[in-house]
Write a structure and sequence with these properties.
elongated, mainly alpha, single chain, 88 residues
Length: 88
């Protein structure tokens, strides 16, 4: 084969690739993420962002807001909403 024929063959899409599902078509089922897990992830992300020299103040503030929101929801989930009623 000549060089130009090799290039054409390499650039030509495989017929096998057409039969496979692309990553965009793949459906990923996930379970619900708890408020505690969200809080931990946002806290770690915030630590990572604060360590970077190219981080923007608005990015840090947004992540802090999301972390605080997860913390509030976590706290509200820990509180007992109603006292059990016991007739005497």
């Amino acid at each position: 084969m000549r060089d130009d024929e090799i290039i054409v063959q390499v650039r030509k899409p495989n017929s096998d690739d057409d039969n496979r599902e692309s990553d965009e078509d793949e459906v990923i089922e996930t379970s619900e993420i708890s408020n505690f897990d969200a809080f931990k992830c946002f806290s770690k992300g915030l630590m990572w962002l604060e360590q970077r020299t190219d981080s923007d103040f608005t990015e840090i503030m947004l992540l802090k807001e999301l972390r605080d929101r997860a913390a509030k929801r976590r706290q509200s989930g820990l509180r007992q909403s109603k006292l059990p009623f016991k007739a005497v």
